[in-house]
């Protein structure tokens, strides 16, 4: 059986200090609500072509001053696709953004135009909404200002096995703690858009060297779990609990991200280089007639 990277503690570092052993109580918490929009890109239409259409979205979001900032991820494994993870402190905050767009025919029209241009590059599109689960997370660090890569793992828990899922996660958390690994992650349970019992594990790395470190720590993790006997127990519980799992690797694309001001201030050369500002400005077109607000973004 293939053990997912989260179960081996493979470099699940939530974009923070690798030496951190606990989350600073004064640090901001992970967003309570996230929306993940997934765009499957047509062959040959990624890269600069997609950067251009996404720059229009970023420009419109900035003009509207919406609070739902998002990070854009481009696939390094699996099918060619882009993920946009929008972060909200609550569903009410998400609704507040929707009302801003609803009340502005100009903004609605811009989003409608941008969606049409972006849609020409896509093969498919879907969305899920997740809520943060603190109990199933491990030393999360929500500051992604210096992150460059994301590891995304998706687990489908068998119906009626929620208790075992919590037990399984606790085993992994305890082994990482005892082994002193660098593992960090944030867990979101999908509330809308996927089968019940779906969990998304998000982590971010400052470099691919972090991934190397995670693989190197797998032995430390196994020893802390109890060696071969502990891994056998974990393997058995995993098989009894998890219906399916999948892990993918993504790179962060700042040109396609609606970055929070805190991220930009912390690392302006990455999140908002001058070339990106110019491209975004050129992507802005004159307002057109009012149109219905898009369902995504």
Please tally the helical runs, counting DSSP H or I stretches of 4 or more residues: 11
Instruction: Average the pLDDT over all residues and give the rounded result.
Output: 86
Q: Structural class given helices, strands, pairing? A: alpha+beta
User: SSE string, helix = H, strand = E?
Assistant: HEHEEHHEEHEEHHHEHHH
CATH topology: Alpha-Beta Plaits
Whole-number total of structural domains: 1
Poorly predicted residue ranges: 1-25, 276-281, 283-295
How would you write the strand order of the largest sheet?
A: 1-3-2-8-5-7-6-4
Blueprint (SSEs and pairs):
Layout: H1 5-8, E1 33-41, H2 48-64, E2 70-75, E3 81-88, H3 91-102, H4 105-119, E4 122-138, E5 149-157, H5 162-179, E6 185-192, E7 198-205, H6 208-216, H7 218-225, H8 227-241, E8 242-252, H9 261-266, H10 268-271, H11 274-283
Antiparallel strand pairs: 1-3, 1-4, 2-3, 2-8, 4-6, 5-7, 5-8, 6-7
Helix pairs in contact: 2-4, 2-11, 5-7, 5-8, 7-8
Notes on the structure:
With 297 residues, the chain is α+β, with helices and mostly antiparallel strands. The protein has a single domain (5-283), classed as 2-Layer Sandwich (Alpha-Beta Plaits), CATH 3.30.70.100. Helices cover 40% and strands 26% of the residues. The chain is built from 11 helices and 8 strands. It has an 8-stranded antiparallel beta barrel with strand order 1-3-2-8-5-7-6-4, surrounded by 4 helices. β2 and β3 (81-88) form a beta hairpin. α7 (218-225) packs across α8. It is globular. 37% of the residues are buried. Mean pLDDT is 86; it is low at 1-25, 276-281 and 283-295.
